[in-house]
Write a structure and sequence with these properties.
Blueprint: H1 2-25, H2 34-43, E1 46-49, H3 51-59, H4 64-74, E2 76-77, E3 91-96, E4 103-109, E5 113-121
Helix pairs in contact: 2-4
Organism: Marnyiella aurantia
Protein name: DUF4258 domain-containing protein
């Protein structure tokens, strides 16, 4: 019984401290897998588009809302073709949907923004 008291005396304040630290940083525990983290971080950034990307969006009739709400949100990051270790901005390739993909998206994720450079219809 005494050991449990000491355990709880350390556990409860530790959890409170961790909660406040993570809450201040705006961290979400929605996904621990790399795919979920890349998608969540990308959605928190400002989206910028290259001229070539805007032309591809127009020719394929893809709206910015569909891009954000469907392709990026529900897409699957293809880490084999991505350059996740590239400095200063890692480059990612996303396919949507995961099974029988119709779109392929290439973007760079920097600190403040995500720059979309290529959209292919498969």
């Amino acid at each position: 019984m005494r050991k449990i008291k000491f355990f709880l005396i350390g556990l409860v304040p530790g959890l409170i401290v961790v909660f406040f630290i993570l809450n201040q940083k705006g961290v979400s525990c929605s996904g621990y897998l790399p795919n979920s983290r890349v998608i969540a971080e990308t959605l928190s950034k400002d989206f910028t588009y290259t001229d070539h990307f805007r032309q591809q969006m127009a020719s394929q009739k893809v709206s910015e809302q569909f891009l954000r709400d469907s392709i990026v949100t529900n897409g699957h990051v293809d880490f084999d073709r991505s350059k996740a270790q590239q400095k200063p901005c890692p480059q990612y390739t996303v396919v949507y949907p995961e099974k029988n993909p119709r779109y392929e998206l290439v973007f760079e994720k920097c600190k403040e923004s995500a720059t979309f450079s290529e959209l292919k219809e498969l």
